[in-house]
Amino acid sequence: MSGRTHAGACPERTCVGCRERAAKTDLLRTVAIEDACVPDPRGTLPGRGAYVHPALVCLDQAVRRRAFTRALRAPGALDTKALRQYVEQTTVAAQATVADQATP
What we know:
Keywords: DNA-binding. By secondary structure, this protein is of the alpha+beta class.
């Protein structure tokens, strides 16, 4: 035996907001399209991607540190309105799901 495990390797990425490593599936991929930073939840859009936790805390840290501009190698500042809207919608949906499960 070679000593290798048969468990599949889980790719990890670093959140540009909090700088913590996490499984790729736990993070939201973002890409730069023209002068905007847009969410890519399926991970299929072309171009360079940056990963962030789908939480407003990490998003705010990344915007404050200008991390998206650096990670995506954009020539200027990126508009993050679409990204913020997506994160807000997903957190509201997640909270609603948790609330529905908590009620008997």
